[in-house]
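Known limitations

Structure tokens in this collection are predictions and should be treated as such. Users comparing against experimental data should check residue numbering before alignment. To illustrate the layout, the record for Class I SAM-dependent rRNA methyltransferase is reproduced below. The input appears on top and the generated tokens appear beneath it.
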Amino acid sequence: MKPAPSTNPSSIADRLTRAATRRSAIRSADTDCYRLVDGAADGFPNLLIDVFAGRWLIQTRDQDLPAWAAELGEPRSVYWKRLDQTNKEPPKHIAGEVVAEPFLATENGLKYVIDFAAGYSQGIFLDQRSNRQRVREMSRGKEVLNLFSYTCAFSVAAGAGGGRSVSVDLSRPSLEWGKRNFEANDLNPADHEFIVGEAGDWLRRFAKKGRKFDLVIIDPPTFSRDKKGKVFRVERDFGTLSSVAMTLLRGRGTLLCTTNQRSLSRPAFSSLILDAADDPSAWKLTHAPMPADFTGEPYLKICWVSKR
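Generated tokens:
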């Protein structure tokens, strides 16, 4: 059995310094939100630290907040959130400035509204940074459908790249948050579509209307329930979504499929997508890694799907 990591202040400071050094290529004037500590890989088992414009969000799994967290001198603010899917509470203030209002964080030059008081999620999922950048690079003149869009971060990336997006989400407040993200980047929300609704329902509507897209993004939560009580589960329902999405692609369009379902392996995720396709042999799947600051478990499966 490995010994528990030291709680000596100098040891903690050394590990934090090493973690920051590993991420020196990510931290820049263009990016001030990233994962500083990713659990055991950085010497802090079951503990994560995400940085948002100098404000630290410490997250723990199966443990309370370490005592040393309240004594950190570097960050402007320190907040703590317990990773608990059954009791999703917002972060608690621990030290430094109280973040009472939303603020902006920057990723690859794009600004996103972050809110520590909004609930369990703060407005952007940092593990999708590389995918957002790729979407931005490939979106000029393209129509992009963003399903389960949350605060529309993918849509903002597409808009910044010169594309036009359609964002679909069950939550109207999340879509309104998304519009603020557009405005933060001098992008006019009126040039894009925002639809409150269930992803599968709108995929079928688009298919019936014959509407086409150049890129479709499917990034669902592991589990969700719509207003009618219908439950979505990745392992059961993802293939149905991806198979319909394939029919909406224009020409040699692209499908981005991602899931953070930890119990689902990469090969199993590939099978979900291909087994549901009308002609599996017609599609090429390319897996992508998580961003470099996520040094621990590669829980996020990223699959770019295109015609052969």
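For this record: DSSP finds seven helices and 16 strands in the chain. The chain has a mean pLDDT of 93. Please report discrepancies through the issue tracker.
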